[in-house]
Design brief:
Length: about 325
């Protein structure tokens, strides 16, 4: 067996009640949710009982989804399964900072709350939306985006690219796609993320990371793949800050990230968080990969029964060595 990667989902995968099962039954999850609640009171009730519309608002989505994502990692680690590499989609990358050791869990949660506020403000200044375009030629899509003044931002997997932009331009672009009979899916997000419209949010996050004494970014214990570069994070703090803050206004190179992880020896991908979107991207990108998702106790039990703990895996490898 090769390496294991934990993947953390991004905005659009949230739903009321996510991670409830893990929160109620896994001590490590319950304990950290209590820490997060002290930092941002009301997050747990919002996460478990908030409406779809409430959870779609960026300043709410990101803290709640951070907890749902990290709950999966905490549950896996409590069962003896640890990652060899980590990647997170957009806000999921902040979860990755905690799981890879670049930040403590509480630091990462404080950071995602700040990030959410900066992005919420930017979203209110320029109303925008995002869609996933299915099956369109990559170069043709990029060309059409340029003509329509919208942006191809998330390169998810072969045959799927997310487009983002200002609401009026996006409406016109969607009409073009409909006329050309190109399929697309509306994403449940509250802004035009990963575009130049997020420049102010990116700058604010960079200032927060540089000026605040609340965050002590350190070199990761295990590779954390960055959305912006599709490569592991650098070791220098200033470079880490640049990549993390610029991510807000840069494209997510997810397909390249998965390919690079596979080339490094990863053959097992575990999506932590609600939904199975990232699992679908892996299936379309990495042939023969073992793919799992953890969002509740039953999925945790399936993973542990099929994979065993890291210690058991190592014992098997030594037996066959």
């Amino acid at each position: 067996m090769g390496k294991i990667a934990f993947l953390f989902s991004g905005q659009g995968s949230q739903y009321p009640g996510m991670a409830k099962d893990l929160y109620e039954n896994v001590k490590e999850v319950h304990d950290f949710f209590g820490v997060a609640e002290a930092i941002r009171p009301g997050t747990i009730i919002q996460m478990l009982k908030g409406t779809d519309e409430e959870l779609k608002k960026t300043e709410n989505t990101q803290p709640c989804l951070f907890l749902a994502d990290i709950a999966g990692a905490l549950a896996l680690e409590s069962a003896g399964i640890y990652p060899d590499a980590v990647a997170g989609f957009s806000l999921g990358e902040v979860v990755g900072l905690a799981v890879s050791g670049a930040l403590t869990k509480s630091e990462a949660f404080k950071l995602v709350c700040k990030r959410a506020g900066f992005m919420q403000k930017a979203s209110e200044e320029v109303k925008g939306s995002m869609i996933a375009v299915i099956g369109m030629d990559k170069e043709e899509l990029i060309s059409q985006c340029r003509k329509s003044k919208v942006y191809p931002v998330n390169f998810n997997c072969p045959g799927q690219i997310v487009v983002s932009g200002e609401e009026g331009n996006m409406d016109k672009f969607k009409e073009k796609l409909k006329k050309s009979e190109v399929r697309f899916i509306e994403l449940s997000v509250g802004g035009s993320f990963h575009t130049p419209y997020m420049k102010e949010a990116a700058e604010s996050l960079k200032e927060e990371l540089k000026a605040s004494g609340n965050y002590k970014l350190t070199a990761t214990d295990k590779p954390l793949y960055a959305n912006k570069t599709a490569s592991p994070y650098p070791k220098e703090t200033d470079e880490m800050i640049d990549i993390l803050s610029d991510q807000i206004q840069s494209s997510v190179r997810w397909e390249d990230t998965l390919i690079n992880m596979a080339e490094s020896g990863v053959d097992t991908f575990i999506e932590c968080g609600p939904g199975r979107t990232l699992s679908g991207f892996v299936k379309r990108t990495v042939k023969g990969a073992k793919i799992y998702n953890i969002s509740d106790l039953s999925s945790l039990e399936k993973i542990t029964s099929e994979l065993g703990t890291n210690e058991e895996l190592q014992a098997k490898e030594q037996t066959y060595a």
